[in-house]
Amino acid sequence: MTTHPTCFNCGEPVKPEWAVCPHCGQTHPSRSKTIHCRVCGRKAKSYLATCPHCGAYLEPRPFPLVRVSLGAVLVLGLGFGLFQGWSTISRGVEQAVMLVSPPTPTFTPTATFTPTATATPSPTATPSPTATATPSPVPTATPSPTPTATPTPSPTPAPAVVATSTPTPTPTSEFRYGKPVLIGPLEDRVYSQNEELTLRWQDMGPLGPNEWYAVRLIWMQDGQPAYGGANVKENFWIVPPEQYWGLADLSTGRQYEWYVFIEEVTENAEGQKVSKPVSPESDHATFLWQE
Fold first, then answer.
1. Strands 182-184 and 198-201: what pairing?
2. Confidence (pLDDT) at 157
3. Predicted TM-score (pTM) above 0.85
4. Is 82 left (phi over 0), alpha (psi -120 to 50) or beta?
5. Cα separation of 147 and 63, whole Å?
6. Phi, psi at residue 152, to the nearest 5°?
7. Which end of the chain is more exposed for a tag (fewer CB within 10 A), N or C?
């Protein structure tokens, strides 16, 4: 029967390769792998994140292939350097031997006429023309013409139809005379009982045989409007006191209102008088007829 080691904290069985108990989470340092700190070189447990001696971060050991590759590169570099050095040394030795032991000239028994060497003049070195750098013209940016906005033609407004007003026919005036203008009394002038009261207006010219100045009076009597007046040919009228004095209510200050117009008086087929105004009414004026 196989016996497994147990966790020294909880007593549960654990495998030898387990660094941490799966039951209680207790770390087993004795079963943990030991690594070397790459800074201080001292040993530390692999489950630690930092070196307990120098505090440096513990990094895993480089992959073996990387170390082998680095070694191979170093060996190849060293071999290439030795080869280059040996080649250089060999060439130097050969040159030194040639300088120390020059070749022995061979004796020729027959004298051979050797022509005198004529010195050939050295060719005059023709100076090479110096290339002068031709400055390249700096390209000038040609300004692009600003596009001119083509104005959109506005639609020509249709001519407004002007309504031609039809002249209103001037009505033929029904009056033959203008508006009479009052002279007096005006604006509540006060008269006494014994004072002559004369109403006057501007003359409107000669009147026809059936045309009259119609003088009209209006007053308040017992709270109700009352009317009076007369038709005359002259441009004045003397108001008879016996007919009109004292009729206006005292509460109104004995006020009377008066106005004038021209009217035409005719008779109809039955013999009755018919009145027709032939001028507009004048403005209205007032007077007070007191005691």
1. antiparallel
2. 55
3. no
4. alpha
5. 69
6. -75, 120
7. N
